[in-house]
Amino acid sequence: QVLLFHLYTQLESCFDQCGNEKPYNFELNIERFKPWVDKITYYKIEDKATRRFDFDWSNEQYVRNCLANALDKFYKEKNITPQDSDLILFGDCDEIVNNKALKQAIGLSKNILSFTHLFNYCKLNYHAPARKWFGGILVNFSTFLEYGSFQELRKVKDHIEHFEAKNNPSW
Hints:
171 residues
């Protein structure tokens, strides 16, 4: 039996990238997301006491690792036991995987791969065709457990097999 969940998980910290407290913007703008709110699982990260801001990316990495808590909560809410072959797609908000590319990649039956994205900078109209960006990682559950965290998977995105869909680039 195959169960397919199309679920978007939004994690939001009460801190910005520099460690300054900030409001929860998703809650403030919930009306803008009304057409899709039934597909969004929202998690507020409120644990201020355990936060570190001793290097530039520490908050981002902390929030990324909180995805594991969100995944665990998802399985419990749905009363599902995770299977080794369950597939998890994750990436940053600017690493959007094209749906056709995702379907092609799932057909490859790989344990882990990262998607090749168009490399844009500053604005979408500044495209560097000679450069590639690797992100949007597709991983099965057992491989995720081997790495132990989403941040550890993120560290290897440039060094694992990359998938580039023909005529269906991700961005």
